[in-house]
Amino acid sequence: MAWISVGVSFLGGIGLGSVLTAVIQRWLTRRARADDILIEGRQEAFRGIFEATETLELGWTIEKAKRLGFWIIRVELLGSRETIEATHARRDTAPNTEERRQSQKRMIKAMRRDLKLPS
Predict the structure, then answer these.
(1) pTM of the model
(2) Residue 102: enclosing H or E segment and its boundaries?
């Protein structure tokens, strides 16, 4: 048991605790930054999908439909499985129906969860 005490004292003497602390802090900082980047990307994608949807519903053109499709691809890249499924469900419903309203509510709820916003 004495050798454990000596070993711990030796490691403490060479600053292993400081090195370990620095490594853990760096990892946590990188992880937090990655989370921030993901949230920013999701915000952009979700904003884009709503703007493209609004534009498309004011008057359908192939260009507007393509723009919405590009934003849906962005959501597929960055969104959670729940958000992707809700986005597809909303896309696949007819405008001005109860089914569309319900799918839109589901999509918004999933997006809020992805952005870590209160429900």
Answers:
(1) 0.76
(2) helix 98-114
